[in-house]
Protein backbone atom coordinates (compact mmCIF):
# COMPACT_ATOMS: atom_id res chain seq x y z
CA UNK A 1 0.00 0.00 0.00
CA UNK A 2 1.22 3.48 -0.74
CA UNK A 3 0.93 6.47 1.57
CA UNK A 4 -2.61 7.28 0.39
CA UNK A 5 -4.03 3.74 0.21
CA UNK A 6 -3.56 3.20 3.92
CA UNK A 7 -5.77 6.20 4.79
CA UNK A 8 -8.71 5.58 2.45
CA UNK A 9 -10.81 3.25 4.59
CA UNK A 10 -10.83 5.34 7.75
CA UNK A 11 -10.14 8.84 6.41
CA UNK A 12 -11.36 8.77 2.82
CA UNK A 13 -13.79 11.66 3.25
CA UNK A 14 -11.58 13.72 5.57
CA UNK A 15 -9.46 16.62 4.39
CA UNK A 16 -5.94 15.65 3.34
CA UNK A 17 -4.84 18.98 1.85
CA UNK A 18 -6.07 22.54 2.14
CA UNK A 19 -5.08 24.52 -0.95
CA UNK A 20 -4.96 28.28 -0.57
CA UNK A 21 -4.29 30.29 -3.71
CA UNK A 22 -2.55 33.64 -3.97
CA UNK A 23 -5.99 35.21 -3.77
CA UNK A 24 -7.22 34.66 -0.19
CA UNK A 25 -10.74 34.03 -1.47
CA UNK A 26 -9.54 31.00 -3.46
CA UNK A 27 -9.21 27.84 -1.42
CA UNK A 28 -10.06 24.17 -1.80
CA UNK A 29 -10.20 21.27 0.62
CA UNK A 30 -9.10 17.98 -0.96
CA UNK A 31 -10.12 14.71 0.70
CA UNK A 32 -7.89 11.66 0.90
CA UNK A 33 -10.16 9.94 -1.64
CA UNK A 34 -9.98 12.85 -4.10
CA UNK A 35 -6.21 13.08 -3.69
CA UNK A 36 -5.88 9.32 -4.27
CA UNK A 37 -8.04 9.44 -7.41
CA UNK A 38 -6.19 12.43 -8.89
CA UNK A 39 -2.81 10.91 -8.02
CA UNK A 40 -3.75 7.65 -9.77
CA UNK A 41 -4.89 9.55 -12.87
CA UNK A 42 -1.64 11.52 -13.00
CA UNK A 43 0.46 8.39 -12.43
CA UNK A 44 -1.28 6.74 -15.39
CA UNK A 45 -0.57 9.77 -17.59
CA UNK A 46 3.11 9.52 -16.67
CA UNK A 47 3.12 5.77 -17.43
CA UNK A 48 1.46 6.43 -20.80
CA UNK A 49 4.28 8.91 -21.55
CA UNK A 50 6.87 6.20 -20.90
CA UNK A 51 7.98 7.26 -17.43
CA UNK A 52 9.34 4.28 -15.49
CA UNK A 53 10.35 3.59 -11.90
CA UNK A 54 13.59 5.42 -11.18
CA UNK A 55 13.03 8.15 -13.80
CA UNK A 56 13.28 11.74 -12.64
CA UNK A 57 10.27 13.98 -13.31
CA UNK A 58 10.10 17.71 -12.65
CA UNK A 59 6.71 19.32 -12.10
CA UNK A 60 6.29 23.08 -12.12
From TrEMBL:
SUPFAM superfamilies in alphabetical order: Acetyl-CoA synthetase-like
InterPro entries: AMP-dep_synth/lig_dom, ANL_N_sf
GO molecular function: acetate-CoA ligase activity
Top-rank taxon, per record: Bacteria
Cellular component, GO annotation: cytosol
Record keywords, A-Z: Acetylation
Residues in AMP-dependent synthetase/ligase domain copies: 5-60
Gene3D superfamilies: N-terminal domain of ligase-like
Annotated protein name in UniProt: AMP-dependent synthetase/ligase domain-containing protein
Species this protein is from: Marinobacter nauticus (Marinobacter hydrocarbonoclasticus)
